[in-house]
Amino acid sequence: MIDEDELLTIAITNIRKVLNFDPYKSYSDISNRDEFKQLISNDPAFGLLGLDDDRYIIARVGGNLITSLHRKLGDMYEGLFVYLLTKSFSLDENELNFSVEVKIGERNQIRSTDGLIPNNKFNDWTLDKKSLLAYILR
Questions:
Q1: Rounded distance, CA 114 to CA 96, Å?
Q2: Where are the domains of the chain?
Q3: pLDDT digits (tens, 9 = 90+) for 26-61
Q4: Would you tell me which of 34, 96, 99, 101 could form a disulfide with 112, CB atoms 3.0–4.6 Å apart?
Q5: Could you please report the per-residue DSSP string of 10-67?
Q6: CB 33 within 8 Å of CB 27
Q7: CA angle (138 as vertex; 97, 135 as ends), nearest 5
Q8: pLDDT greater at residue 114 or residue 26
């Protein structure tokens, strides 16, 4: 059975990780905006172009924050999808990841997906009036 509180917990847990965002994490010895601005100012590729301007610094840090938020949204949706797959189709951990080796041209390659729904479980699910689709469309 799908637990709405569990879905909310998955969503909130992922989004709250953005609160720990450190815009200077990738730069050794940089811990604040002034130090970052000085780093940009001293960089021959950026400083000479005047990119040590406050507007650029704000945009750069803000852009990194938005990227982090988008990644966490992706993690959130993946977590929700895994939860819904698990609950809707009674999948176990082994069924949540699936890989197959295929030959493409002369090369063998591994293709993978986030879940494998066996035909019998999918067919049972489509007949179930309390299915995920019915739950979502209610």
A1: 6
A2: 4-137
A3: 899 999 999 999 999 999 999 999 999 999 999 999
A4: 99
A5: HHHHHHHGGGG--TTTTSTT--SHHHHHHHHHH-TTTGGGTTTSHHHHHHHHHHHHHH
A6: no
A7: 25
A8: 26
Mean pLDDT confidence for 20-29: 92
Q: What tokens appear for 86 in the block?
A: 């698990």
For residue 137, what are the CA distances in angstroms to 84, 111, 121, 128, 129? 14, 32, 21, 14, 12
Each residue's pLDDT tens digit, 67-111: 999 999 999 999 998 898 888 888 887 778 778 899 999 999 998
- CB count within 10 Å of CB 23 equals 19
- Asked whether the beta carbons of 81 and 114 are under 8 A apart, the reply is yes
